[in-house]
Amino acid sequence: MVAVTGDLYDAVVLDMDGVITDTATVHAAAWKRTFDAFLAGWSSGYRATQEAFTDDDYLTYVDGKHRDDGVASFLASRGIDLPRGAVTDPPDRDSVWGVANRKNCDFQRTLRERGVQAFPTSVGFVRRLQAHGIGTAIVSASRNCRDVLAAAGIGDLFTVRVDGIVAEELSLRGKPAPDIFVEAARRLGAAPERAVVVEDAIAGVQAGKAGGFALVIGVDRTGHADELHLNGADVVVRDLGEVCVTGTPS
Predict the structure, then answer these.
(1) Which residues pair with 236 in a beta bridge?
(2) How sure is the predictor about 5, in pLDDT bands with cuts at 50, 70 and 90?
């Protein structure tokens, strides 16, 4: 069993989607609807057939990244070059940000209609860390982080949050750059070499490794443990209930 001990680590920085909240599948479905509709229109206009968006596309090009970076990365893989545009672009504009905002509208609609659940074992893991005096922070490339946590009923679980809004304010690079993890650790008063990253995305474990974090834990809920290992995870678990917390409780 993997152990996080207060003797070795001062802080744990956790990704939100797929680690704390069961939203990774919601994001993936929203991306598929958005990209498939876009590709169908693109194929029709240019008479060049484009294959539908796949699970592998999501894991390789989109998962864990800022929305605009994910759009640009995936479209580039299909040889499609759109103007970047601006974050204020309307969802019907054929720009990188227009497609990104199209997806966000889909995600927010699903969030309102269906709500979201937190993984009980993940919440329990965070509370055990806190009880042992180990700092905890939530990170997310999403600008919806606060709303998702509130919808899941855990809006007060983390006192430190570094999300897409903070990243924009501070000009932090998106994953696989380590910027948001390093900033979260800094806000907890912890150096990366005394901190842990918990991630379920390939770009996320790459970021943890690039940031020099002492331990990178991959969470595999979709059967891609090998990819997590290859891209920087020191250990991979299927659920955070498999990780024990040791040390002197606060």
Answers:
(1) 218
(2) very high
Residue 4: both structure tokens together: 């996080």
| Rg, C-alpha atoms of the chain | 18
State both tokens at 43.
Answer: 């194929």
- Determine contact, residues 157/125, Cβ cutoff 8 Å: no
Over residues 172-192, the pLDDT tens digits come to: 999 999 999 999 999 999 999
Cβ 39 vs Cβ 225: under 8 Å: no
Q: Is 15 a catalytic residue?
A: yes
Integer CA distances (angstroms), 245 to 11, 118, 205, in order: 12, 20, 21
Mean pLDDT of the region 178-207: 97
Q: Look at residue 26 in the predicted model and tell me its pLDDT.
A: 85
Catalytic pick from 7, 10, 15, 156?
15
Task: Reply yes or no on whether 17 is catalytic.
Answer: yes
Q: What end-to-end distance do the CA atoms of the chain give, in Å?
A: 23
Q: Give the chain's length.
A: 250
Residue 86's pLDDT band (boundaries 50, 70, 90)? Answer: very high
The residue with tokens 């842990």 is 196
* Residue 162 pLDDT > 60: yes
- Rounded to whole angstroms, how far apart are CA atoms 218 and 205? 7
What is residue 48's predicted lDDT score, i.e. its pLDDT? 67
**Is residue 186 a contact partner of residue 11, using CB atoms and an 8 Å limit?**
no
Active-site hit among 10, 17, 69, 200: 17
Packing angle between helix 67-77 and helix 96-114, nearest 10 degrees? 120
